[in-house]
Every structure is written in structure tokens, then in C-alpha cells.
Design goal:
Its main location: nucleus. It contains 4 helices and 2 strands; from the N terminus they run H-E-E-H-H-H. By secondary structure, the chain is mainly α. It has 3 domains: 47 residues, 3-Layer(aba) Sandwich (SRF-like), CATH 3.40.1810.10; 55 residues; 52 residues. A hairpin with a 5-residue loop joins strand 1 and strand 2. The radius of gyration is 56 Å and the shape is flat. 0% of the residues are buried.
Amino acid sequence: MVRGKVQMKRIENATSRQVTFSKRRNGLMKKAYELSVLCDAEVAVVIFSQRGRLYEFSSSSMQKTIDRYRECARETLTNNSIQAQQQIQYLKEETENMAKKIEVLEVSRRKLTGQSLGSCSMNELQQIDSQLERSLKNIRARKSQLFEDEIERLKAKKNLLLEENARLSEKCGQMSREPALAPPDPLIQQQEKGNCSLSIKNSEVETDLFIGLRS
């Protein structure tokens, strides 16, 4: 029979909970013993039941194992504390270096805008002048590039308009070259007019209207 998967939640039934506790406690103790024997490991297990009853297993001495654990935990805590202090010190140094860099950049910005130049030496002024010249050169180059891009865009737009204009002109030319309707022939018109008059005369019927008795 396949064993169903156990849901990891508190067992509400007290009897079932106690039975499960006893089975799993014995299984855990057995696994701890096997681990200590097979792997020559120092193993200690401490279990308190719901009612506060103590169950324990130790491959050697429980107190010796507890003391060893406390010593390792103290060393781990000390190492973690040292690492935390080192990390804090590193962050402080990084913060100070960043603040110094920001201060240097702020002084440089003021000098580039013509402020705080009273304490500048001739060499510093020459460096500022060279930096400004380089900045202006870059600005002019960027401006020229933008102008060239705009000119190319306008040229492309002009070519599109010229092509559209040529297409429309060709279309209008084709429409003007189409043959017009020929004017009617005067002889044919005269003949058709005579035939129409003859038809009207033939269709006329003389009628006399008489009211009264004929003699």
C-alpha cells in the first residue's frame, strides 16, 4: 500500500499527535546513533515533548558536546562581529572618499562658472581655460552635427516632395492628352432635322368637331 504524503501542519487529534511524536522521536534517535557510528561524528540530540519531558541522546558526553557547541557559537559570533565592524569601517571610508570627491567636483564647477577664482594660480587658470576651450569645441562639434543631420533630413523631404510633384504632373499630362469628343457634323444634323419634320407632318391628322344633327 502506498503511503500518502503527510501534510506539514499540527496534528489536531491528541492521540494521533502522541503516537506520531513517539514514532518520529525514536526514528530521530536511531538516525543520530547511526550517524555517530557510521561517520565517527559527535552527535547530540535534545528533545522536549509538549508536556515538557526531556529526551536526549549523545554519542559521548552531553555536557561536553554542549560546551563545544557554546565555544563554536562564541567564535562564530566574534567572527561575525569583527566582520561587521570591518564592513562598517569600510563603508565609513567610502563615504568620506565620496564626500571629498563631491567637494572637489563642486569647487571645479564653481571655477568653471567663473566663481571662486581669487585663490587660483596662473597654472590653474590656464588649466581652466584649456578645459573651457575643449568644452566649447565639443559643443560646436555637436551643434554642427545636429545642423548636418537637419539638412540631410530636409534634403530627403525635398526629394520626396519633388517626386510627388513629378508624379502629379505626369498624371495631369496624361489627362490633358486624352481625345476630346468630336463636334457633330452639320449635314448630319440638317438631315436628322428634316426627317423629324417629315415625321411630324405625317403624324398630323385633320379632324372636324361637329355638334348637332347632320343633314
